[in-house]
Amino acid sequence: MELRLHDTLTREKRTFAPLDPKNVRMYVCGPTVYDFAHIGNARPVIVFDVLFRLLRHLYGEAHVKYVRNITDVDDKINDRAARDFPGLPLNEAIRKVTEQTGKQFHADVDALGALRPTVEPRATEHIGEMREIIEKLLAGGFAYAAEDHVLFSPQAMNAANVGLPRYGALSNRSLDEMVAGARVDVAPYKKGNTDFVLWKPSKPGEPSWPSPAGIAAQGRPGWHIECSAMAWKHLGEHFDIHGGGIDLVFPHHENEVAQTCCAFHQQRMANYWMHNGFLQVESEKMSKSLGNFITIHELLKDWPGEVLRLNMLKTQYRSPIDWTVKSLEESAKTLDDWYRVAADVAPTEPAASVIEPLLDDLNTPQAIAALHGLRGNDIAGLAGSLRLLGFLSESAAQWESRKQQASGIDAKEVECLIAERTAARARKDFKESDRIRDLLATMGVAIKDSKEGTTWEIVR
Ligand code: AMP
Ligand code: ZN
Question: What pTM value is reported for the model?
Answer without folding.
Answer: 0.92
